[in-house]
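Make up an example, fold above all:
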Amino acid sequence: MKNTLYIVIPCYNEEAALPPTSEVMLGKLRQLVSEGKASGRSRVLLVDDGSRDATWKIIAGLCEKYTEFAGVKLSRNRGTQNAIMAGLDTAREFADMVITTDADLQDDIGAVDRMVDEYLAGADVVYGVRSKRETDTFFKRFSAQAYYKLLTWLECGTVYNHSDFRLLSRRALDALDEYGERDMFIRGVVPLLGFKTAVVEYERGARNAGETKYTVKSLYRLAATGVTSMSTKPLRLIKTLGFLMILAAVALLIFAPYSRLVLASVWVVGGLVTCALGIVGEYVGRTFTETKRRPRYHIEQTVQLKETDEER
């Protein structure tokens, strides 16, 4: 049975969260192995995304103490999406299935069992989808729901209320590797893979320790990446807006004597043009970044990734 499981966890300054998280993950992995759902070669793969605290020291200590842990240290901070890709690329060599989740235990660890069950039943991609957002603040809940609705309206093909809690089979990982974006929006690309999919609903809990690493700036960058990498509809909307502005200009000729209206229209048109240039600039900037073909990340160090003689 091909059931070697790797649980990939990106970590950035998670020295407070890692001790309780590692304990829970170790217990879950051992449970799956004892039930025969995962092989003894399974691992929890912790990816240090250029942390400035003791995160890597903790990871190295876990790998020294437990054979169930492995570690990857990136040479510098590259962002959550690239850290996830580093984990997926590394795990692909050893695993039959890979689950990605966060280091804060907000994703329901109980859903892992159902994800593995769906994989064993034939699914190549299993999405973890939030059923509720009661633990979120009003701002976070409102902004997140608005963003998912925006992605749906822009025809980005993402799964509603799904972030980066998912399972991918080896076949899905091999297909994902064929996508060459340097700044990949993983939650938008995975649905493009096809293959058999399943959905596991769960309730997201509160963070177990530490503080969230997502700032307003990083969330905006993730949102912009998602839109510009998955949809060209904003560019088509700019074209439509230009046509409407021409009609508005013709209408203003009729009301030319009303100087205040004309003056206001100049400011409105100027603002719309600036906004349109900003949207186009996002696409141009993304094209500029992608054409340079720079690597997503560099791995500085790995720990305990080779299989032991007993596991072979």
Notes: Confidence is low (pLDDT under 50) at residues 308-312. The longest strand covers residues 125-132. The chain has two domains: 5-137+159-215+295-303, 232-291.
